[in-house]
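Dear U.,

For the methods section draft, I wanted the exact inputs and outputs in one place so we can describe them consistently. I've listed the two proteins in the order they'll appear in the manuscript figures. Please don't edit the token lines directly; just add comments below if something needs changing.

First protein:
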Amino acid sequence: MLTLAVDTTAEFGSIALADENGVREEVVVHAPQGFSRVLFGEIEGLLGRQTVAPGGIELFAAASGPGSFTGVRVGLSAIKGLAEVLGKPVVAVSNLEALADFGSGEERAAVIDAHRGEVFAALYDGAGNLIVPECVLPPERFRELLRGRDVEWIDTPRPLAGAIARIAMRKARQGLAQDPIAIEANYVRRSDAELLWKEK
């Protein structure tokens, strides 16, 4: 199942092409000015190097968040647009779930810096199932939630597109791939605009 996956949720993102034999190529993309101006060029370059036509991709996948609000929207919109045009399914994958995929423990605490003294965090089992739902909170509070558990902590930033592709293929085999229009972002935290609006 040839899969194209993207992660545009932080300044350093990634794109990957993978199939049942593993990740064919994963590329780190640095986009300090945003991914909207570079993403399609990077995808085109990846497909060219791998001699793959867009129509040969069977599954599309994208990081659904949490992360930069604009970054999440850019990646999801790009993948949804490509999948819609080509008539292919999509899987949206949480960045936290993708991070947990790098672990080997029975319980894996995935943690991403959310700034403002907080982290995006969740606890997964080895199969990728949520034990403690995704949340945003001070890191010490999350550690307190997990006190007494034998947990593997995974909090080092790394390229996630390859893991997103692996998870997406697994979910597609379980019948969990979706029509592009059904894919939604997973912000976890409300935007500043929403918070300011609520305060008025």
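Second protein (the one for the lower panel):
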Amino acid sequence: MMATDASLAAHLTAGGDADSHQDPFAEWQARVARELDLRLPAADTAPERLHAAQRYSVLGPGKRVRPLLVYATGKSLGIPENQLDAAACAIELIHAYSLVHDDLPAMDDDDLRRGRPTCHIQFDEATAILAGDALQVLAFQILARDPAAPADPARRLKLIEILADASGTAGMAGGQALDLAAEGRTLTVAEVEEMHARKTGALIRASVTMASHCAAVPDSRRACLDFFAAKIGLAFQIQDDLLDIEGDPKVIGKAVGADKEHKKPTYPATVGVPAARAKLLELHDEALAALAPLGAAAAPLVALSNWLVARRS
């Protein structure tokens, strides 16, 4: 099936046109921003420059996709929001640290992120490296001792385990290494999907899985949610790849065409743009089908999934 932009918009009917609702989950976005602000070091405490860089990197504009997945999963499972705040903050801090490091000259060498100078441009490279390091540590500190994390030590430990697995060489860091090693090479579709499953998909899956471990949830529900998260994670990355080709820099907040410039084997570069759009729809359908056992309770995840794959930024 070849999907055009018009067919994509028509395909996503249940809350799906991202252009007509730029922030359909604004309440959760605002909530996690408040919670992050409370947990980040104050900018006027020593070392001031490092703390300012941390706050700049975390509290700037952004979609907060991973915290949204935490809250939407919790909502679908009947878990109160205050029991999800620690997980939502921790995963956003890991994501923020990864962006700070990915933007460095030794990695993707980007000057803009979300319409603003990247951390190493706004501050300096050394400060950016330290800011990323500190954000990563803060994420695990929150899961270990934050009052909002589950009171049960076994649940806290499970959250730490999930986030560590998703962040390390089997997940995000490993995916970035594969991405860097792939520049200028031709990969198979399976290799591209493996790279995306680690670099982007691992934290997407962790967002959903961590939420499900904030309370007692049947293993059968967790299995459905994990399948959903794996599919929507790849769909999210394919949409990112397409936006780098067809997106509006003013909307995206960064230059487009970077993947082609760096000769990265993205999904559209590997299979072509029409086939990538078709795969995006296929993955989205599979993700929604996985939510069927949850019935009407899955509505927040359905709406969020629709928004994510139809977004323009």
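Candidate sentences for the figure legend, describing the second protein: The chain has one domain: 5-310. Residues 1-22 have pLDDT under 50 and may be disordered.

Thanks,
Y.
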